[in-house]
Design a protein that fits this description.
- The complex is a heterodimer of chains A (365) and B (126).
- Chain A folds into three domains: 143 residues, Probable tRNA modification gtpase trme, domain 1 (Gyrase A, domain 2), CATH 3.30.1360; 84 residues, 2-Layer Sandwich (Alpha-Beta Plaits); 75 residues, Aminomethyltransferase beta-barrel domains (Elongation Factor Tu (Ef-tu), domain 3), CATH 2.40.30.
- In chain A, 21% of the residues lie in helices and 33% in strands.
- Chain A is built from eight helices and 19 strands.
- In chain A, the strands form four sheets. Chain A has a six-stranded mixed sheet with strand order 10-11-12-9-3-13, sandwiched between helices.
- In chain A, helix 2 packs across helix 7.
- The relative contact order of chain A is 0.15.
- Chain B is of the alpha+beta class and 126 residues long.
- Chain B has four helices and nine strands.
- The radius of gyration of chain B is 13 Å and the shape is globular.
- The chains are: A alpha+beta (365), B alpha+beta (126).
- At the A-B interface, loops of A face strand 4 of B.
Chain lengths: 365, 126
């Protein structure tokens, strides 16, 4: 199994480690609910170094990404990031990614479990192009720091450095070199909270983690480590899709509620299929559900209207913030209207569930 | 660590503590730790007859849903109602306050077939 540079840090902190996309990663340190609440109220740091980091250089870097991405990459400005899907010819999602434009290169952050598939896809699609793809996943650490106190805490930690993150808007990023160390800090995340994701070399990453999590004393809020368990409950409350659950090669971005990252005016792989889906309207739609009672609907649970099967759950959990059992799933479009009561079959037990708008949780501005 | 030696275990992590002809059942601290934050425990009604090997309920945690099994047969005489509001009792005190059901056993001999503490611990390592 692959290990991130922070592996020994996680062990020292007593994390429970699991296999995630071929990487041994921390699922929790103190408890999923505790880590979840700390993220919603203060700030948490997550090791996301397992995620693929692919850099593109050369004359055709933009052309390649515009060929494979649903988002219009030509319109992406320097210092900005954008969420996109990469689709197959049928419009199914090969992966969901974030593209960032540097002065001299482009970066794709992809899911750990899809990195090798993505590299093969990119190599096949760039056979006729002048582009160099540089996989930096194993040479760098990527940390997500998320929560309402993050920007202040992060600025404090950087106060003696020339790195300024204050003016960076959502989906903006800063990059540079400080004391010989290259870094990039992105204002993005996967929790529904404000925060940043930072990429630095392996050696420095370990020091940055320790610096950020150092106890600030009684008076100051402290960044605490959080694992993939909390990351999952946080993103689910925020209504964000997870590859392998809400997204896969048989699900298209429009049905998944991600039409906003698809530019049907440009040409890219899968666009014809997606234009057809747009014209006909998606057959099934991603739907938010709040369940009666405390049972949790898991991926694969059937969704019914009366006795008729009309959909399937893709993710479910007991929401630590709302203290309600929540789920996302695909439901036949005609049954996905807000406030409609559906039924979920949880291992033979029928549970009522109300259709609600996504996201389940939205942070106060 | 060490699991209590005053009771018997199933491989599926339920403990069984016999007191007279009443057997109290719960899950081990190891299982509770593995499940992480327990959010819900579904238990049978008092008076229900259950047989060794049956599933008597369900435990939900943030990460998974697991069936609960009994290693002894009998009639459920009491369930731990506190778990309705405080399912986290199972995480915090799996061997005492987090108990789940009490059964009036029909054949105390069935307990002899279950694992003792040492055997339970040994198979955890394997």
């Amino acid at each position: 199994m692959e290990k991130t540079a922070l592996h020994s840090t996680h062990k020292r902190l007593g994390a429970r480690l699991i296999d995630f996309g071929g990487w041994e990663m921390p699922v929790m340190y103190r408890g999923i609910a505790d880590e979840h609440h700390h993220t919603r109220t203060v700030s948490s740091i997550f090791d996301v170094s397992h995620m693929g980091r692919l850099y593109f250089k050369g004359n055709d870097a933009e052309k390649l990404l515009d060929r494979v991405c649903t988002r219009n990459i030509a319109k992406l400005k320097v210092g900005r990031s954008g969420y996109s899907h990469v689709c197959n010819e049928r419009g199914g999602v090969i992966d969901d990614v974030i593209i960032s434009r540097f002065e001299d290169k482009l970066l794709m952050v992809c899911n750990a479990s899809n990195r090798e598939k993505m590299l093969a896809h990119l190599n096949a699609q760039s056979a006729d192009m002048k582009v160099k793809i540089d996989d930096q996943t194993k040479g760098t650490v990527m940390m997500a720091v998320q929560g309402p106190a993050t920007m202040e805490l992060f600025a404090n930690a950087l106060e003696k450095s020339p790195i300024k993150i204050g003016d960076m808007g959502r989906y903006g990023f800063v990059t540079g070199s400080y004391m010989g160390v290259n870094f990039s800090i992105f204002r993005s995340g996967y929790t529904g909270e404000d925060g940043v994701e930072a990429v630095v070399s392996n050696m420095v990453g370990v020091l940055v983690w320790d610096r950020l999590t150092a106890d600030g004393g009684d008076k100051r809020p402290t960044v605490k480590p959080a694992g993939l368990g909390a990351r999952d409950t946080l993103r689910l409350e925020a209504g964000m899709p997870l590859y392998g659950h809400e997204l896969n090669e048989d699900i298209d971005p429009l049905s998944a509620g991600c039409g906003w990252c698809v530019d049907l005016e440009k040409e890219f792989l899968g666009v014809e299929a997606l234009r057809k889906i747009k014209e006909d309207g998606p057959r099934r739609k991603i739907t938010g559900l709040v369940l009666d009672g405390k049972r949790i609907a898991r991926q694969g649970s059937k969704i019914l209207s009366g006795d008729t099967e009309i959909g399937e759950v893709t993710s479910g959990t007991m929401s630590p913030t709302l203290e309600q059992s929540i789920a996302m799933g695909f439901v036949d479009a005609e049954h996905s209207e807000i406030d409609k009561t559906l039924t979920i079959d949880i291992r033979g037990t029928k549970v009522d569930a109300k259709v609600v708008p996504l996201p389940f949780y939205k942070r106060a501005k | 660590m060490g699991v209590p030696t005053d009771r018997k275990y199933l491989k599926s992590h339920e403990w069984h503590k016999l007191d007279g002809d009443v057997c109290t059942i719960g899950i081990t601290q190891f299982a509770a730790d593995e499940l992480t934050d327990i959010t819900f425990v579904e238990l049978p009604d008092s008076g229900k007859e259950i047989s060794a090997g049956d599933s008597f309920g369900v435990v939900e945690s943030v990460k998974s849903t697991s069936d609960l099994y009994t290693g002894v047969s009998g009639t459920v005489t009491e369930v731990n109602d506190k778990l309705g509001d405080e399912p986290e009792l199972v995480n915090n005190d799996a061997f005492e306050g987090g108990w789940m059901i009490k059964i009036k056993v029909s054949d105390a001999g069935e307990l002899e077939k279950l694992l003792d503490a040492a055997a339970y611990e040994a198979q955890l390592d394997g």
